[in-house]
Amino acid sequence: MILSGPGSTLITGIAELSTVDPALGTLRDAAVVIEGERIAWVGPASRAPAADTAVDVGGRAVLPGWVDSHTHLVFDGDRAAEFAARMAGQAYEAGGIAVTTGATRAADDARLDGLVAGRVREALAGGTTSLETKTGYGLTVEDEARSARIAAAHVEDVTFLGAHLVPDGLDPDTYVDTVCGPMLDAVAPHVRWADVFCERGAFTVEQSRRVLTACRDAGLGLRVHGNQLGPGGGVALAVEVGAASVDHVNHVTDDDVDALAASDTVATVLPACDLSTRAPLAPARRLLDAGATVAIASNANPGTSWTTSMAFCVATAVLQMGLTVPEAVEAATLGGAKALRRDVGTPDRPAVGRLAVGARADLHVLDAPSAVHLAYRPGMPLTWAVWQRGRRVVA
Ligand code: NIG
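That's the Imidazolonepropionase sequence above. Prediction below.
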């Protein structure tokens, strides 16, 4: 729902403004001017210019909208029984993906579209203004193309994840041929990215390399699910192929960390998934200390992480992974933008993930005077208002 339209808007009463812009840092008693869908001015409230309309946020903290760079929103059904079994001691296995694939194939287009729309709305209500989402619960040419088409109706950054699991009864290499051939052709018009689950029980490094190479040749950017369930070659492969991100990274070696630090590949950690699978937490502190770029994402999906709450992920990264609040906020905003290569704007596509002149006017106002409250009051509904593309979309 749009509460106000474009035009210039002066936002005052900002007790703390986390711009997440390296040149601007964190400002107190700040103001922001929005013009159309972009930020036109940022600075101290005492020097703010006039605008068509003014909004006083009453001494609250403002930060960029979350940039959630890893979700799987195109699905039907739930796996609560699998979750309960896991909480009783069973290990997570990639095979659960097949259960969701069955439920997703059975849903008609209108139902699937409504489910995705609802999840995007839910994320927005919690301050997420940019989202990536994936296919991966279709796993036939027709079902992957349908998932991609439905996702693209709601989300700008759609990822082809035909290589999520080898469907039951199919030969893995024959399935990879399908992924690299007719499936890729069918999804390509709807997607910007390609991803592969490079893991035991899913795809080998060699199969993953084939998928990523074919997708790169088709003009897609690359991402990798890597080193989630155990050590392996996912991180090294992601760096080798120049992937924008490698996600999960629970089991990394010193060589993996060094390779990430020396590369442009963002290490995306998924705190809610780590809790929900009782996995060793991804070493976000170690990665940051080594000089890698870290993103925090929700990994919203019915198997390993059914939450769209980036605030929960940020709180977990602070409370459990050893990040400071500013580090976690940066990883969940600018870090996500870097993972989606949206941190630098172009004339027709403004940057996201930071609050600076020219960036997209995506603002998240907390019902708190500082961002510290995100971790200090974990689990509390702290979103007070959201602007997306210059429009106030959450009151
Ligand atoms: O990112 N790791 C692979 N894919 C999802 C889980 C998918 C599922 O279990 O349904 C993830 O955790």
